[in-house]
Design goal:
This protein is of the alpha/beta class and 129 residues long. The protein has one domain (7-56, 67-123): 2,3-Dihydroxybiphenyl 1,2-Dioxygenase, domain 1. It is built from two helices and eight strands. Strands 1-4-3-2 form a four-stranded mixed sheet, covered by helices on one side. Strands 5-8-7-6 form a four-stranded mixed sheet, covered by helices on one side.
């Protein structure tokens, strides 16, 4: 197997709000869209994001009423503190403030209008390591 790309597919209640969140705050752009569907991409190594409106006919019947929950979409970045300041300035809903874990992970979380938790992470050298 040769994996050539990665895509996260999320079923959301607020398609337009989630799409706007990913484009405004995270630098994604719309690659294609149709009724109840938006495909977002970036020019770097980030995974693509597909957003599907909950209840959409394109989803299998058993999945139509489910929505993204209990997961965290995490992106590793550089300049994390600056990104947190920028996103606060843009009005992003920062739901977990910037912190650094003892194992060397600095992170903060935001939540999009559909309740999708997005975590930005930067790895540092752990104290004493």
């Amino acid at each position: 197997m040769n994996i050539t790309a990665s895509t996260i597919s999320l079923t959301v209640d607020n398609l337009e709000g989630s799409s706007g969140f990913f484009t405004k705050h995270l630098g994604f752009r719309e690659a294609m869209a149709a009724e109840g569907f938006v495909s977002l991409t970036r020019d770097d190594a980030a995974a693509d994001v597909v957003l599907l409106r909950r209840g959409s006919e394109v989803l299998p019947a058993g999945q139509r009423d489910q929505h993204a929950a209990g997961l965290i979409v995490a992106f590793t970045v550089t300049g994390l503190a600056g990104e947190e300041q920028r996103l606060r300035g843009e009005g992003a809903d920062i739901t977990m403030p910037l912190r650094t874990e003892p194992w060397g992970e600095s992170l903060f979380q935001m939540t999009d209008p559909s309740g999708v938790v997005v975590q930005l992470v930067e790895w540092t050298t752990p104290a004493g390591g």
